[in-house]
Design the sequence.
């Protein structure tokens, strides 16, 4: 067999792949197919560096619980929340050579798989590690959604507030498949994300014709690359065929986005205001709220059913000068003195206040016979339990939203380290309608299937 030119392959694979984010935004005016009323949506929301476990709750009754200082912003919403306390991540049950440190492995908690080899230094050791080898729940759930309904344009949307670079400390979404390292880089500029996803009709006829012309050009490019890719499948070995098939799946995602349009009543153009620097820490709250608006709009337009939002990467060392702090969050979280814990509580209280802006956006966005708050599950998570000890047996997860009344809400459920974070992810699959999923991730990270929450 004549060997393939690597340059030729890369020209096909990467020439279009690099343009994929821009192709998603190009969408014809064809009416989108009718979708079932009030589909289920899920949004994962990450904040970093653990908290202070002893100060989460003042009283711990299942329904008579009292929220501690940094969780107090959630009090007005308590009837629509479930606090899942003391979930265990079980990373130490993985072989030593296949796990990163608790920040790194914890940052990929949505992908509860062993880690592969790589060059990222493991904290406190002389060893290095790579990314996890399998898909994260946001990617896997999104893939199941597309299998069930190809009219949905995007498998998932992944956002992060903060810096542009991507590595093991700030990349939390993964595509897999099982056995492969395949991190998904998040979008970090909400203005660019909005322009990429949405293509609201213009009153300018010339502008509409230009969009159609560009659509035709991009569709032709997709057809060409897909044809070349299918031809390559017959000429490659099994490993290379898997890589090409993965690329063809990405091409299909773009084609799906090209063929869908905006149809729901709440799917209307949303002003983002004056453009600010997305990478200035002082703008983090504004950037977060913009991503919340974009996420809600994407749900309202039924362009996706899954969003993965991150307030930062794990080990975030953002300086919260708006709170009067001059030291970075990660640095503060490593200390165990009273003053440091007070600052940790201050930071998390601030982030929970920001999260309630998402709740209000969802509550004020109509959806079918209710609102997005009625039809969405928001999953709040952290890479650690407590920052100074880097604990993983005492993680707090908060479910927010009415979520089709699927869960019994208004409760604090203390699992005392007896159930795992991966089990919680199985509950997320079940909420989204995929009850055939009985475990997710490595067997040793699962302890018993979906949590008893319904």
Sequence:
């Amino acid at each position: 067999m004549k060997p393939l030119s690597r340059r030729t392959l890369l020209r096909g694979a990467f020439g279009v792949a690099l343009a994929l984010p821009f192709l998603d935004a190009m969408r014809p005016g064809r009416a989108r197919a009718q979708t079932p009323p009030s589909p289920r949506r899920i949004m994962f929301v990450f904040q970093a560096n653990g908290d202070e476990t002893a100060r989460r709750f003042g009283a711990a009754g299942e329904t008579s619980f009292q929220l501690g200082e940094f969780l107090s912003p959630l009090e007005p919403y308590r009837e629509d929340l479930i606090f899942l306390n003391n979930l265990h991540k079980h990373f130490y049950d993985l072989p030593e050579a296949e796990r990163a440190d608790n920040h790194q492995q914890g940052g990929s908690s949505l992908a509860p798989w062993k880690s592969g080899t790589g060059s990222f230094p493991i904290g406190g050791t002389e060893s290095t590690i790579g990314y996890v080898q399998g898909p994260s729940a946001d990617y896997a759930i999104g893939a199941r959604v597309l299998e069930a309904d190809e009219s949905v344009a995007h498998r998932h949307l992944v956002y992060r507030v903060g810096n542009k670079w991507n590595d093991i400390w700030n990349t939390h979404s993964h595509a897999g498949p099982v056995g492969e390292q395949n991190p998904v880089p998040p979008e970090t500029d909400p203005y660019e994300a909005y322009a990429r996803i949405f293509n609201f009709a213009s009153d300018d006829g010339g502008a509409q014709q230009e969009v159609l012309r560009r659509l035709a050009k991009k569709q032709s490019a997709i057809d060409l690359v897909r044809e070349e890719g299918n031809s390559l499948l017959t000429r490659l070995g099994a490993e290379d065929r898997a890589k090409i098939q993965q690329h063809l799946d990405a091409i299909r995602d773009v084609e799906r986005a090209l063929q869908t349009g905006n149809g729901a009543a709440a799917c209307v153009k949303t002003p983002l205001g004056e453009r600010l620097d997305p990478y200035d820490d002082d703008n983090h709250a504004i950037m977060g709220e913009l991503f919340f608006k974009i996420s809600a709009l994407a749900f309202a337009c039924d362009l996706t059913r899954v969003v993965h939002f991150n307030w930062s990467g794990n080990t975030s060392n953002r300086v919260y000068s708006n709170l009067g702090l001059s030291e970075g969050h990660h640095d503060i979280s490593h200390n165990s003195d009273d003053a440091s814990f007070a600052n940790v509580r201050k930071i998390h209280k601030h982030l929970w206040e920001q999260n309630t802006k998402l709740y209000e956006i969802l509550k004020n966005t109509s959806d079918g016979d209710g609102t997005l708050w009625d039809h969405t599950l928001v999953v709040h998570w952290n890479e650690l339990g407590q920052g100074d000890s880097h604990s993983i047996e005492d993680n707090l997860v908060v479910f927010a939203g009415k979520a089709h009344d699927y869960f019994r809400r208004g409760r604090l459920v203390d699992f005392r380290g007896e159930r795992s974070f991966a089990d919680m992810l199985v509950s997320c699959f079940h909420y989204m309608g995929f009850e055939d999923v009985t475990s997710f991730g490595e067997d040793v990270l699962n302890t018993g299937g979906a949590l008893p929450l319904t």
User: Anything to note?
Assistant: Confidence is low (pLDDT under 50) at residues 1-35, 258-263. The chain has two domains: 1-30+200-260, 41-199+267-445. The longest strand covers residues 81-87.
